[in-house]
Automatic annotation (TrEMBL):
<protein>
    <submittedName>
        <fullName>Uncharacterized protein</fullName>
    </submittedName>
</protein>
């Protein structure tokens, strides 16, 4: 069996950055922006932080996707033959698609907020009463979504750990030799 260090590393490091960065922004950047000194500075700080994170996040997601394709390619025989691997791969694919969708939607909302300039805010995802309607609505949606990407990518970390357990020799042997009962 060939080693897949590069694709596994891209998969894992990309996912770790995607999960960790979005969690850090929800836990730290968004609330901390409210301490910027004024409502207008809060908006400016939040926009600057998210704009700096976006290219890193895009690179992390790209690395994860490249690594995922590499892992799928390297394990295509196991996916076809080992019991439970196809289901796990399907779950990972669905979670990845969901995380991509929520990330993309959040970025679109973030662009609305960013284009509003230094919009007055209580914190990054909590508009002040002076925030414009479209920007305030985007901030409120972002407030709801800021925990969704870390939750989904965190679930991907768990499923990836499970996938690693499925690669133990004893699991491979059992999964290939034990066939599901037919009715």
């Amino acid at each position: 069996m060939a080693r897949n260090t590069l694709s596994r590393s891209l998969h894992d490091v990309g996912l770790a950055a995607w999960f960790g960065g979005t969690l850090a922004n929800a836990v730290a950047l968004n609330p901390a922006s409210g301490e910027a000194g004024s409502a207008r500075a809060t908006g400016a700080v939040a926009n600057a932080g998210w704009n700096r994170w976006t290219p890193v996040n895009a690179a992390a997601i790209g690395a994860h996707l490249i690594g995922s394709v590499g892992q799928l390619q390297a394990n295509k025989q196991r996916v076809a033959e080992q019991q439970g691997v196809k289901v796990m791969s399907t779950v990972k694919t669905a979670l990845t698609a969901a995380a991509l969708g929520v990330t993309a939607y959040s970025r679109l909302l973030g662009k609305v907020v960013d284009q509003g300039g230094a919009t007055p805010s209580k914190r990054a995802t909590r508009p002040s009463k002076r925030a414009r309607g479209e920007v305030a609505a985007a901030q409120l949606r972002l407030d709801q979504l800021q925990w969704v990407v870390p939750a989904i990518t965190g679930a991907l970390v768990v499923v990836s750990s499970y996938a690693g357990e499925q690669q133990r020799p004893s699991e491979v042997l059992r999964g290939v030799t034990v066939k599901p009962a037919t009715v």
